[in-house]
Design goal:
Blueprint (H helix, E strand, L loop, with lengths): L10 H4 L13 E2 H5 L5 H4 L20 H11 L11 E2 L9 E4 L3 E4 L3 E2 L15 H13 L4 E3 L8 H10 L7 E6 L1 E2 L7 E2 L3 H15 L4 E6 L8 H13 L3 E7 L3 H8 L6 E3 L10 H10 L2 E2 L14 H9 L4 H12 L12 H9 L3 E2 L2 H11 L3
Parallel strand pairs: 5-6, 6-7, 7-10, 10-11, 11-12, 12-13
Antiparallel strand pairs: 1-2, 2-14, 3-4, 8-9
Helix pairs in contact: 5-6, 5-13, 7-8
Length: about 375
């Protein structure tokens, strides 16, 4: 999916180089950035080879004239019937961070490490050094939530994270998962037996070089094992200090409610994106209960995102449909924690730039209506 992604020709003319630091004190429309005004050349996205981690320096000389014009332009961003993407200063929404479990603050746009493994999510990647560079660059760009699982590889994904990032920077949250076995490439078989899950936790701790896993998620509910037994094992590991918080994956609101009778649940990871909203009910429950919702396949996964209407909106404003999809997710709910994954440095930069796209409520509704036409 990732390797086939394309960027509209217009995107390279005005996309802004964003890094971990704040750049602009105001919102800007795409039309404003296209205008021939001072600092325009510094506002354009520099090619990936020139993209610096501390990109706050790129436009440190923003002129007073630009500041005023950008501020005034923000109020007129929504044109009749059009979903105009706004580029904001510090983040693509009013809530750039979320506190997992009430004590783990993370930036809401994280990174999913699954795609760093070999084909079929099996074995080592063909370019191991590139995989390490992608992880390092993700952190440089401000990502402090990385999602993985013992089943990715299996095992190799966790080992790569430790290779690339250990000793870990302060504040980095590594979320891993257990409870899915891998008979072969693209094959997944749940195993929720208590003894197996305890073993999974211990092995993940060793591979990740951690004394405690900040967020451990039950990868799948095993239909052959009572949920109470599986979560009871994770609760024991939490009580022994090996797990800080517990999450679930691919579950209904009823399953979350049932699980919360056993142990506090702080996150849910379900498949969800702008064109696939099967789990809307679970998202609504998570929002009500302030449980983090981590959508996997946030830009469509291997299926991609196909919508002529959404493609047109993205192209009209010089962004990719994937950037539009990520911006929509961040706009959709304050508990949304997208974890887009890629093995490409270029696509990583592109994904992270989506943090700066701000959608108004009207724009969100317009995009919702267009997505429903697919």
């Amino acid at each position: 999916m990732d390797s086939n992604r394309s960027i509209p020709e217009s995107a390279g003319h005005w996309r802004v180089a964003f890094g971990a630091d704040r750049m602009f004190p105001s919102k800007m429309t795409s039309n404003l950035v296209r205008e021939k005004i001072p600092c325009e050349r510094r506002l354009r996205l520099m090619n990936n080879s020139a993209f610096e981690a501390n990109s706050g320096r790129v436009c440190s000389g923003v002129s007073r004239r630009l500041f005023l014009r950008a501020t005034l332009a923000g109020g007129a961003s929504l044109l009749a019937g059009r979903a105009t993407a706004l580029f904001a200063a510090a983040a693509g929404n009013d809530n750039p961070s979320f506190s997992i479990g009430g004590d783990l603050p993370v930036n809401r746009l994280g990174f999913g490490a699954m795609r760093l493994t070999g084909e079929g999510i099996w074995g080592w990647p063909p370019d191991r050094e590139n995989a390490r560079k992608v992880l390092q660059r993700a952190v440089e760009l401000g990502t402090n939530l990385i999602d993985t699982a013992d089943a990715y590889g299996p095992e190799t994904d966790e080992l790569l994270i430790a290779e690339a990032l250990y000793p870990y920077p302060k504040g980095l949250v590594i979320a891993t998962k257990g409870g899915n076995t891998r008979p072969g490439p693209n094959q997944w078989v749940p195993d929720g037996r208590p003894e197996y899950l305890k073993q999974c936790v211990d092995k993940s701790l060793k591979r990740l070089k951690l004394e405690r896993i900040d967020l451990y998620q039950l990868h799948r509910v095993d239909p052959k094992v009572p949920m109470e037994d599986s979560l009871g094992a994770l609760k024991e590991m939490q009580s022994s200090g090996k797990i800080r918080h517990i999450g679930l994956s691919e579950v209904s609101p009823e399953q979350v409610q049932r699980a919360r009778k056993i142990v506090p649940i702080v996150t849910v990871q379900n498949r969800y994106n702008i064109t696939d909203r099967k789990w809307d009910d679970t998202l609504a429950y998570c929002e009500k209960e302030r449980i983090g919702f981590m959508p996997w396949a946030p830009v469509g996964g291997t299926r991609g995102m196909t919508s002529a209407a959404l493609e047109k909106v993205a192209k009209d404003h010089g962004i990719t449909i994937y950037q539009l999809g990520l911006a929509w997710l961040l706009h959709r709910s304050p508990v949304m924690l997208p974890i887009p994954g890629t093995s490409s440095l270029a696509h990583l930069e592109e994904n992270m730039a989506a943090r700066k796209i701000q959608l108004s409520p009207e724009e969100g509704k317009t995009i919702d209506a267009l997505a429903n036409q697919t």
